[in-house]
Amino acid sequence: MAGVLNTAERVPPTDVSGSAAPGSGPAAVPDHPTRFALPPVADIREVGEILARCRGALEAEGDVTVDCGAVERVDAAGLQCLGALNASLAEAGRLLTLASPTAELRRAAEVLGFEALLGLGPAAGSAAPG
After folding, report:
1. Which of 104, 99, 108 is nearest to 80 (CA)?
2. Cα–Cα dist 129/101, whole Å
3. Is residue 24 included in any domain, yes or no?
4. Does residue 17 belong to any structural domain of this protein?
5. With 80 as the cut, is the pLDDT of residue 127 above it?
6. Tell me, what CATH number does 39's domain have?
7. Could you tell me the pTM of the whole model?
8. Residue 47 belongs to what domain range?
9. Residue 42 placed within a domain
10. 123 pLDDT exceeds 50?
11. Number of domains in the chain
């Protein structure tokens, strides 16, 4: 489905086995408008830089990969940037891929209700059995 964030291998959103192993460090994503890394602290203080990278990705062609392997702390502003990028790319028929999402990013997405939007948790997969 276009616009759903997946791991680098583009596996279903509920399968995040493509993430880097704990302690292995961030995946190497070359600097390019459609491939960039989030900083270790992706919060309101860094949102200007993150938004600039997102805008650059939207102006370029093709799908976008965001390396999340260095993220140690993220807040709602950082997650909102990813969500807005995802929505804009989906409207254009493009895909956003999260590479190596850290446990911290996953935890913040869960607590702040971004799991489904970012494809990072069980809420993004099939409905639980009733």
Report:
1. 108
2. 27
3. no
4. no
5. no
6. 3.30.750.24
7. 0.71
8. 35-121
9. yes
10. no
11. 1
